[in-house]
Amino acid sequence: MSVVPDFYEGQTRAERIAQLVDREDYFFHKIELPNGIVTPGWSDPKNEKLPHYGLPEDMTGMRVLDIGCAEGFFSFEAERRGAAEVVAIDSHPDGVRRFNICREALDSRVQAHLTSVYDISERTYGTFDLVMFFGVLYHLRNPILALEKIFSVCSGTTLLQTANFENEALGDNSAAEFHPFGIESGPADNRSFDPTVFWVPNAACVRDLMLHVGFVNVEGGNIFPVGAVFRGEVPTATKGTPPDQMKAPWC
Fold it and tell me: What φ, ψ does residue 77 adopt, rounded to 5°?
């Protein structure tokens, strides 16, 4: 169903989308939409993140999962690079609503689902050639469980980015800071308290977490200023496939 159905008399579709964007109190991603519309996100992923996160230039035919999609910049970028199917998930209803505004404006086929990383499984979502897991790990109470879930649906490669801390005294030892009540976060000129930040790992810890759940050929590290960025593969790659409708939970 379109999220832009109720045009005012004499209003164009572009004007209606611009109005919907303006009505939102918050955007995380800055996304370029048609007709010169740019969402007012405080994060500019095209320039600040995309050059560092390792997305393949050619994603033709891939089945892709975007975990913590927010307004969908990386979902739409994967589609633009040729992905055959992109499944986006986010646990915040407001984020999915904003995603759908952008989806409508871009005439995208990507579907956003309101769900948690803990709820993904091969039975419900199938498997994926590429899993994008950006900016989520440090928001999770149970990061190992989340990575186990990701491993269970990844049939090829997982790309991971997380906020991190580094301490030279630790050398190559794994460590993570625990913040029981959250941290200050947000743009530099408008800091706010974020109670959803729990575990902030160092790069060695991210590497070891991925190895622990079964990923191989794990590579990456601390990339200033975007955080820890890693790539891992499953031991035996297969083609990502949709869920079997005869075995899905609703059957």
Answer: -70, -40
pLDDT at residue 7, as a whole number: 54
Model confidence, pTM? 0.93
pLDDT at 90: 98
- Beta carbons of 230 and 150 less than 8 angstroms apart: no
**β-pair partners for 63:** 85
β-bridge pairing 111-114 and 85-90: parallel
Q: Which domains does the chain have, with CATH numbers?
A: 45-233 (3.40.50.150)
Six token digits for residue 155: 């049939």
pLDDT attached to residue 249: 76
Q: Can you give the pLDDT at residue 79?
A: 98
Cα 110 to Cα 132: distance, rounded to the nearest angstrom = 14
CB 131 within 8 A of CB 150: yes
Question: Degrees (nearest 5) of the Cα angle 56, 59, 61?
Answer: 155
Q: Which residues of the chain have pLDDT under 50?
A: none
Q: 3-class DSSP state for residue 166?
A: coil
Measuring CA to CA, how many Å separate 179 from each of 166, 184, 199, 203, 234?
16, 11, 6, 17, 31
* pLDDT score of 11: 82
Please give the Cα distance from 87 to 76 (Å, whole number).
10
